[in-house]
């Protein structure tokens, strides 16, 4: 959570809190799903509702930290789920706040794992030890190790230029005409979003399946 208070009153709110983890759907406990929804989604909603009266009064800005992962997932579906949900919350809020002069912006970073440390490298051994007996009957250690290696390689490719995301946040807060969405990502990441957003699901699934393989 970041806030910006000027001499004119409460001007800006940035919902930046977020946590991430790795794991296929059945590998994660219900408690973990609840924790992620509480921090990544409900935390932003709670903060927004608390400051909404001031933001309406001073015609301020609300900025949300989303991700290109809202469009697809490569082993971190729990994170994708929360970011997709926050996108829809922002879409509703942006339309509703327009009549009050309050602008709502979404920042959609690509892979900046090396800049933010939001996702540390994953350990196949730790993942395996946390699996239920039912999941261990379906998967084996070799598969878990392969998935962990794949995800860790993605993390290593993350950009270290975190200032690019900060610049987008500053522009969203201070520009006379901010964008509704700021996609701060590499070209190949933008192309993947383009495929996922505009092409039929069968094409998206084929592309992502190829990437996972």
From TrEMBL:
Record protein name field: BDH protein
Presence of keyword Metal-binding: no
Signal peptide: 1-16
Pfam family membership, one: adh_short
Family from the record: Belongs to the short-chain dehydrogenases/reductases (SDR) family.
InterPro entries: NAD(P)-bd_dom_sf (IPR036291), SDR_fam (IPR002347)
Keyword Ubl conjugation applies: no
Transmembrane spans: 62-79, 191-212
Keyword terms of this UniProt record: Membrane, Signal, Transmembrane, Transmembrane helix
């Amino acid at each position: 959570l970041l806030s910006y208070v000027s001499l004119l009153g409460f001007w800006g709110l940035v919902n930046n809190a977020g946590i991430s983890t790795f794991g296929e759907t059945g590998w994660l406990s219900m408690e973990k799903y609840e924790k992620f929804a509480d921090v990544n989604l409900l935390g932003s909603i709670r903060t927004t509702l608390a400051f909404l009266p001031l933001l309406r009064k001073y015609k301020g800005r609300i900025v949300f930290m989303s991700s290109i992962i809202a469009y697809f997932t490569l082993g971190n579906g729990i994170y994708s789920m929360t970011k997709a949900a926050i996108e829809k919350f922002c879409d509703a809020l942006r339309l509703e706040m327009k009549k009050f002069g309050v602008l709502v912006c979404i920042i959609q970073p690509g892979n900046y794992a090396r800049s933010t440390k939001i996702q540390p490298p994953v350990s196949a051994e730790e993942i395996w030890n946390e699996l239920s007996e039912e999941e261990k009957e379906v998967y084996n250690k070799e598969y878990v190790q392969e998935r962990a290696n794949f995800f860790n390689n993605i993390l290593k490719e993350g950009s270290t230029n975190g200032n690019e995301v900060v610049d987008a946040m500053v522009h969203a807060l201070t520009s006379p005409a901010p964008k509704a969405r700021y996609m701060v990502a590499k070209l190949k990441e933008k192309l993947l979003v383009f495929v996922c957003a505009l092409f039929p699901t069968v094409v998206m699934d084929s592309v992502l399946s190829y990437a996972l393989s």
